[in-house]
Amino acid sequence: MAGWRAYIEASQRLFTQLEDDLRADSGLSFADYHVLVLLSEAPGQRLRMGELADRLVFSPSRLTYQISSMRRRGLVARESCPADRRGNEAVLTAAGLLALREAAPGHLASVRRHLMDDLDDVEVATLTRVFARLGRRLRADRDASSTHSD
Amino acid sequence: MAGWRAYIEASQRLFTQLEDDLRADSGLSFADYHVLVLLSEAPGQRLRMGELADRLVFSPSRLTYQISSMRRRGLVARESCPADRRGNEAVLTAAGLLALREAAPGHLASVRRHLMDDLDDVEVATLTRVFARLGRRLRADRDASSTHSD
DNA sequence: TAGCACTACTTAAAATTTCAACAACTATCG
DNA sequence: CGATAGTTGTTGAAATTTTAAGTAGTGCTA
């Protein structure tokens, strides 16, 4: 249980530190950055709102707010989905891609400096394995509990 | 870098899940719970606002808000610090201690179920070591940067 | 022992996030 | 078809969190 508390505290400090660094040298928030990364990797550089919310672990309304803000700043655009007219897609703009490219090197350096440099190879491998497995399980749990009898 | 993203996503899901469980079976938020734990372990079951904010990784004003809310609900009290009259202490109340005792078993079970059950002993040891070290380093970095030339 | 810089915390206003409806569309069933 | 239920996502209000600006008290120093 001591480990559990160390995990919470260190994670909190880490996220705070990374967000501060990122904001200072690119003007992007952590959330902005992650949206840009996910869109840049998606086919057509576009994703449905629901899909994006799920990957970011954001509530739908939080994502709506996040995307409107990024849209005002020209980082993304919105298009309604041709196949399913209830749906909306967030689309990466040229300005968004540029912002990501400018922010990435500094952010990666910051991740390396605050986190990776502290870890040896075995630790990195363990963390990667553990959190990948945990993520899968938590996703599965959630799917099960929403599909079930609620 | 894949590990890094798995870590963020899984942590987010984990915290969300634990908060939901905790809220559902005790009415406490994650923040409430942590305040109660820290106070219950402190000598005299009381802590200075600054000390508490630091351990929770909360901004000062966020802690002021958090404590006022807990005070309205009778979970903590406030006393001004005799030694330093700028200071204030948050003090655990009997009701606060009771709330913690009622919430703890369920919360621990939830941590076990969502996190610990997924890990073997070596992994737990690694995570504990890694995050303890990381927390120390991030604390040290922050102290260094605030003491320095600003 | 008055002045000045700093510390500890609070407050008010702005930004963000959640929560509880809602609107629009799709899919299924009779 | 036409009603009904379920999806997708948005909106408005309330709750929370941040940011910037206080307020009060401490402590050094001259």
From TrEMBL, chains A, B:
Gene3D superfamilies: Winged helix-like DNA-binding domain superfamily/Winged helix DNA-binding domain (1.10.10.10). It comes from Micromonospora halophytica. GO terms for biological process: response to stress. PANTHER family: MARR FAMILY REGULATORY PROTEIN (PTHR33164:SF99), TRANSCRIPTIONAL REGULATOR, MARR FAMILY (PTHR33164). GO terms for molecular function: DNA-binding transcription factor activity. Residues 1-136 form the HTH marR-type domain. This is Transcriptional regulator, MarR family. PROSITE patterns: HTH_MARR_2. The lineage of its organism: Bacteria, Bacillati, Actinomycetota, Actinomycetes, Micromonosporales.
